[in-house]
């Protein structure tokens, strides 16, 4: 039987690991797929090429399928399905070494307390600048409809900062974040690895909050496929999901992380240094130039804690953030919309027969963080101890 060709676009980040592993370790071929990977520099390019059929599948931000369906971002409405997630973790908020020093001087207690609350120190720096008549600072995220944008805003808001008035927030492609910080074009950013570690390793930036400090196990990247392609290629969709789930299980084995760092370091994949990638993948990131690594074993989770399951509740949370920050009207019914985009039914169908842990329901109460839940999904507390229950979602961002 000839292999089915699948063209998949990705952006160079640690969490492009699953398609890279699927091709390099033979999981795609074992599922009768000839997987072609195409590296892109921006999320807009990935979205557009998937929508117009250049790609069959894509490594996508969790918010892009929602935005595409709503016709946001200058594109007509597009129907993109999400049959699986591509893991959890990896994001961080990095500021310039100069800004870090100012934050430390402004509020040492906030900077030495829980990392998720470090924005309190930034608030004092912003207030100092305003009193002195200085221009407001600039921060960057990778895309308007990204978890990075919502995490940066969540972190700022928890510290008393209005991200729409107190700072400028722009968009920069992930691989260009480091140069933008080094050259002084931005004061900080939220991006996935390895672009935070790179700033630290080169002495230009300090990580002031990790994704897991803001909301552990939160939605990140997903597998995106056009809905018409799902309908015309159901067996191939199942095979692709199986190949990627098997890749996730391989990537989560501690003994494979060094090899994974080597794979990703190739110029046709992430193209960052092996040492930077390994530090992040081994769960020993360095947060400040010259400091010792911290222990963060769940910095990247690819398979454990149902990391590949496309939870409806996580998609709904992304929708609430779109509404909270004025990207969509408050009347949009995301509960109905999400069940049409996030497709746990496709995931369940694809992994049937594999030894994959499956939840009883397709949604969960996010942030509960009780003992029984932690055993299945891992610690999932929000930095402000809030809880998100999609059943009570009435179109108002929490």
UniProtKB/TrEMBL annotation:
DNA-binding among keywords: no
CC per GO annotation: endomembrane system
Principal location listed in the UniProt entry: membrane
GO molecular function terms listed in the Swiss-Prot or TrEMBL record: ATP binding
Pfam families attached to this UniProt entry: NMT1_2
UniProtKB keywords: ATP-binding, Cell inner membrane, Cell membrane, Membrane, Nucleotide-binding, Transport
Entry superkingdom: Bacteria
Location(s), subcellular: Endomembrane system
Gene3D superfamilies (UniProt xref): Periplasmic binding protein-like II
Entry-linked PANTHER family: ALIPHATIC SULFONATES-BINDING PROTEIN-RELATED (PTHR30024), BLL4572 PROTEIN (PTHR30024:SF43)
Protein name (Swiss-Prot/TrEMBL): NitT/TauT family transport system ATP-binding protein/nitrate/nitrite transport system substrate-binding protein
Gene source species: Thalassospira xiamenensis
